[in-house]
Queue: 2 jobs
Job 1
Amino acid sequence: MKRREFCRTAAGTGLAALFPGAVRAARHRPSLRFLRPPGALPEDEYLATCIRCGQCGEVCPNRCIKFFRFENGLASLDTPYIIPREQGCILCMKCTQACPTGALQPVEAQLGPIINRVRMGKARVDENLCLSYQGKTCGVCYRACPLQDVAIRVGRLEQPHVLEPCVGCGLCERSCIQIPQAIRIIPDHERRIA
Amino acid sequence: MKSWQRHLNKLRFVTLGLVFALLVLLPFLHLYQTYVAAHAYDLLTPGEKLVYDTMEALTAPFTDDPEQDLDAVKGTTWSGSLFGLKLSDPLAVLGQSAAALDVSWPFVLTALIPVLATVLLGRFFCGWICPATLLYELNDNFAAWLRKAGLPVARRRLDRRVKYLVLAAGLVISMVTGTAVFAAVYPPAIIGREIYYAVAVGGFGAGAVFFLLTILFDLMVSRRGFCRYVCPGGALYSLLGRFRALRIRRDVTQCNDCAKCNVVCQFGLDPWHDDFGQECNNCTACIAVCPTDALAFTLHLKDIPFQGPGHLGHAYRRRQEAGAVHEEAA
């Protein structure tokens, strides 16, 4: 190990010992746009609770759950994530029941519990990109939504309107035919469940 | 009459192989489940079709509904579920409780059965179940081979207490950083995860590199060095199994001082001098190699202190003869 690296590591360890709270807050730098699987605790609690066993990914029938290497920092190593553009969550809630630690809180696969307890993020429509807002009737996102008419509604020319109950599963972003996609999930890493 | 216990070592290798094979099979079963769920056999690539057909042939006798039924066995030795019974490694529970600074009882209870088994059987997980053990033992056989060829490999002895320090340091780091760090450095957790990555996600992750380093450490520095000196799980299991009920003891009247047990013990323990201690993982390699059946499992909470040289050996006979001469002289 080079001396500089050694010093940096030593300093880091010292700081961590002196100010554990500061280190806990600093180590999560949101740089990537990813979702945690449904039912996940708020990000800091989530990282402390997950044991990186990978069972959420192993039960996912849609193979949307992937695992971080070093892309999101050391603390996220081997933790599960979802990139909605690659593969959205179908809200089967199997991962929440497979999680042994409660890092993903168990949620029943029914409309009520899903709306109340899942907060992966929220869809947002970019009206400058959306075909329906440009006068070309589309409506694909509306038809892909598993919570149709609850989380998303369409108006004139199939223009999508995202509603409050949207849980951020990402199926709309996955299905959007516009490039770059006009509807995207804004991740909610606070995940405060009302 | 040879004791049946000398066959246990073969049974152990079968068990280790089965656990490893299961860890390889499970990701393929998961892929098969996802293919079934997608209802699109025609769209699979030839490779995926091969997986589908193989797994269908394997599971068809047992299930009509693979998509649901194959959820019965999931996970790895780090944490998994067997027919609805959730089981976790005690190290996972300890590390997670430290990281979260909180005890979540449903999760803690998943380690209950492993902990009870360890209290009774000692470090048996290390010898009989751990998927890394299979690879480490094969690696040790390779080292023995190199040694025979004249290369001085894996000769160093370190301090066994280092692993307890690793365990303590890991707990402190978990508490400070709020992350369960053991998952990244504990070989059985790494192996299950990496096999899953390699099969179902594509490519190995960071853990594979770490595991290769431990293999090299075992090969170049010290025999089974990681398990003996570094592994935090080994440390925890050693502590839990300190007063295990099932332990190997030497029958001094049968021992001929050949010392084969000491040579074969990969953990560098000293069965020949009755020194097993909490580090013994009940692997039964010494029972299998003993030519006179002097070593056997017994139900005792403690090792016997050194009983002297074996009664079938030269040292004991010489001492007896000397004693007899003394008695005649008196």
Job 2
Amino acid sequence: MNDFNPLRKFLDTFFGPLRSWLGIFILIFLFSIVVFDGMVNDWGRASQGLGNLVTFFNESLWPPDWSVLEPRAYPVCTVYPTFMDFTCSTAWIGMVETMKIAFVSTVFGAIISLPISILASRNLDYASFFYEYLTRWNDGGIIFLLVSTLSYLPRFLLAAFRSLPSIIWAIFFVILVGYGPLAGVLAMTVYTVGYLGKLQYEAIEGMTKTPLDAAEAMGLTRFEIAFKVVIPECANDLISQVIFMFEYNFRHGTVIGIVGAGGIGYYINLYLKFLQYDKVIAYLIIIFVVVLIIDFISIKARSYFTEDIGLNRPSWKSIFLPSSVNK
Amino acid sequence: MTNIPKNIEPIIRLNDVSIGYKHDKPLVQIPNLEIFPGEIVAIAGPSGVGKSTLLKTIAGLISPISGSIEVCGKTIPDSPKRGKLGYVPQSLGLVRHASVLHNVMLGANAGHNTPIPFIGVCLPSSFAKKKAIQAINSMGLEDKISEPIRRLSGGQQRRVATARTLAQCPELIMADEFLSELDEKTVGMVLKEVTKYVKSSNSALLVVEHDITRAKMMADRLLVIDDGRANPFITEPTAMEVKL
């Protein structure tokens, strides 16, 4: 019997490779190109972009105006010795304020998000705990409804806090409490709760099940399981995420100042309004350098909380220098 | 078989139980099984027949497909009283980033410390700590007491898991291959301590052991689970009588 099927042969020849993961990836990529093309009316504008950048860079951005590192005219700088007078500059004051906002909001956010993420973790199953607890008094449908709500509430809260970017929260809190770092701290805290909470409950859900099994068999309470098993077991991940969040909050803290929520962003916004882009680029370079330094420090700090503690901890030299130079 | 007075209540009673993860495909079917205080029962059988699943079911971590299981006077899914049941899973279930003492204190608190009602927090108890340190010493880990678990060898981690259960002083110890990764000398030491506890406290030990020679050596009764067919529990001819 002849099993030759020309259609099958044709499909195998031309579409056979598409059955692989690479084929699927290529299809998705092509689809994204089609979607992108649908959104852009005039591709000619993209080709003009490079020319515009060169003009903008030469005429407005470069060289940076480093006067932002000089002391402000008012209030008069009284710092001694005089080489420390850069601490009276707007760049320094703004940077320190941004760092303070990032630090305070990371600490507040981590404290608030941890209990919420424990309640949100599916593997800890607090919903069934509430169900058992409440059905002691009432076994009706209202309890079922209440427990269902309770089980979704933490995730709902975290998603709600995360759904708006920090700059929108900053606008919201500037309306509520006025300009300044208070609005910045509140905005960044709310966003930290949403973002860090998600990272935390994913870390908790990713932990191995056997410590939970052993604890449950022993008859430990939910509180003991959460605080003596889950948190110590996930501690490295949780601490590492908090350090990451501080770094993230610092970067975003520079943006929220633009809407009046304090920090270096306030000065960036000020000079943007006056079209003094050479000062803006000076601030951006300072932010970039500080972000890099924080990133390097966080590599070192996070290495204290990784699995192979003390074995492969990177030296400062290996953090700052590329591995090829460091051999 | 150990001589058990007729009026003594068993610690575990399984009535016509079938266990497994899928309702239409039970792994093991057990017509009847009772384990009494002071008994050491070993479960042996090839890989994948459901030995560990049986332990998890008795621990209340998996619901039985059918039948009833009574542990320490409570029918599953009602959990037995706090601290009555000690479980050493095959992968140990230790908190890897915490110290040896922290891990063993979990067992000691479960066995000897009552949590505050509605909150579930235990106040620090010197008695529980004393029990934990005793258990750590009995496993020969006194010099590792503040060491994090991840820095210990596989064998040392097994001893910590055993110490956690001994510190708990449970009525039933369920251990899943708790002697693997240990050298012969340490096996003797661990086995001696566990047997001493079981016999002196009138508790029971249900242990999964793939090494049949070792299982025969340590157990009063040996249950061999065959390939989950009609009669999965068979009496090992050289072992003592199995009460089914």
